[in-house]
From TrEMBL:
Native species: Shinella lacus
Record's keyword terms, sorted: Oxidoreductase
Name of the protein in its database record: Ldh family oxidoreductase
Cross-referenced InterPro entries: Mal/L-sulf/L-lact_DH-like_ah, Mal/L-sulf/L-lact_DH-like_NADP, Mal/L-sulfo/L-lacto_DH-like_sf, Malate/L-lactate_DH-like
Pfam families: Ldh_2
Family from the record: Belongs to the LDH2/MDH2 oxidoreductase family.
Amino acid sequence: MSTLGVESALLVSHDRLAALAAGILAASGMGDGDAATAANLIVEANLCGADAHGVFRLPDYSALLRKGLINPRPLVTSDIRGPAVALVDGDGGIGHLSALRAAELAGELALTAGVAWVGVRRSNHAGATAIYAEHIARKGLVGICASVAAANHMAPWGGAEPLLGTNPLAIAVPSAGQAPFVLDFATSVAAFGAVKTLAMAGQSLPGGWVLDRMTGETLTDPTKLSQGTLAPIAGHKGSGLALAIGLLAGVMSGAAFGRDIRPFDQPADAPANVGHMVIAVDPGRFMQRAQFEAEVARHLDSFAESTPTLGASAVRWPGARRAAICAKRSKGGIPLDRSVAKRLADLAHQLDCPIPFSL
């Protein structure tokens, strides 16, 4: 979730921040329609608290677009391979466009076939994976999404060479009368965006986030980030899950994986060919959808009402905090760290885009 400081943050409305993002993407070469679509998805990450996947990424996206390493005007295509299977080709464009197309297509196929699997190839970083899983859940379906990271940040368990990405996984389940259950996590202890945010601010890295490649010891010095790899969640289990996602979302989709993906400490010099996988399931094939959603809500409420451990204020289910942050930021504005705001303002000035806030 959010890793950016809010004590001195600017508050910017969703609409203004989305307009800034769209302007930057359009000035970087994207068509107006695609820029607006991608901008809304980028800012949705901020709206829900996933700041490390939001506008913080715009300078990188802009640089890659202007270098031609992200296709600014992709022709995203869909190839339906069977009643419940399809393949989306992102044509090297920004990943948000192809991931959204896959989520929409998976939902359509699942309503007909009961279940659908859509693979994506030739994509790029698509922001917060939960956005696409939740998009499916809002249609009354179960959404499962996973991605292969655009760069390798993590070594396989017992190894020193970064051959795995953070490879996130998100699962969203609709629930009656409340926000959907949304489980969203990287297969590393911390997402690389969160690590990079702290490193850019010159802040020490929390212990256990990054491991020294040679010794395996925890690394906290942000200036030595290139000497480390991200630690997997739960040791060998997280490493194995990252590998499985790489095979299913990468290899099976015809996208890059393993040595075909650049290490995070090397500059991008070729298109990324990022892969995603999107699964949609219609719970109405097992019971009435309303009954299923009511049962989900009943169980989630029982967790929320259960006795917390000593020192904890409450028991939360995945998605509850996300929904609360979204509601708060929708009303009061999105907190934008001043260092991020300055980077965006400098970029907007460089690209001759209007800036909707003052530093």
